[in-house]
Amino acid sequence: MSDIWKPSVTVAAVIERDGHFLLVEEETSEGIRFNQPAGHLDPSESLEQAVVREAMEETAHEFTPTDLVGIYMSRYVSARTGQDITYLSFTFCGKVGARHDQPLDVGILRAVWMSYDELVACQDRHRSPSVLQRVDDFLAGKRMPLSYLITHSSVYDVAKEAISG
User: Fold this and answer.
1) Whether 52 contacts 40, CB under 8 Å
2) CA 49, CA 28: separation in Å to the nearest integer?
3) What phi, psi does 77 have (nearest 5°)?
4) Domains contained in the chain, CATH given
5) What is the pLDDT of residues 77-101, one digit of tens each?
6) Cα–Cα–Cα angle for 76, 82, 83, nearest 5°?
């Protein structure tokens, strides 16, 4: 076993429409919480592909990332289990598309549109402090072009190797 420490890589989507933000209400080990559509990067996918997939799985909405809002690193220690995890999260903004008639991911209770004031009012139920930070950064106009993200073709070769192997 390796002694090299590795953070968990995640993606999140800040999705805004008409002054409201698309969030998910989800079951967590700490109870029911609000979060952006978010999740872990899977093998053989780019960060952009991951955020599109997570948005669809958790909200049933199409999402097209246009910019990177920020890269956030945070540490989470579960009050219930004592589990200690560091997350490196890439947060995107973009365009929301059609809503599909499909079940939401396991643990997601509902997708909900909230105003900024509603989001601030329920801070005690946010999955992490990053939920409001991401929206604040989005509203402050923080953006990086997606061209800053480079996914080497070797990432996709993992899937090819698994199929042929």
Assistant:
1) no
2) 24
3) -120, 115
4) 8-164 (3.90.79.10)
5) 877 788 888 999 999 999 999 999 9
6) 55
* pTM across the whole model: 0.90
Supply 50's token pair: 């991951």
CA-based nearest residue to 155, from 53, 44, 51, 48: 44
Q: What is the mean pLDDT of each run of 10 residues along the chain (165 residues)?
A: 86 98 94 97 96 98 98 87 90 98 97 98 95 98 97 79 53
Q: Of 146, 138, 110, nearest to 17 (Cα)?
A: 138
- Residue 77: the pLDDT is 85
**Cα of 158 vs its chain's centroid, Å:** 23
Contact at 8 Å (CB) between 76 and 85?
yes
pLDDT for 105: 97
From first CA to last CA, the distance across the chain in angstroms is 24
CA-CA distances (angstroms) from residue 148 to 26, 54, 63, 68, 143? 31, 21, 19, 9, 11
Are the beta carbons of 38 and 89 closer than 8 angstroms? Answer: yes
- Other Cβ atoms within 10 Å of 16 Cβ, number: 17
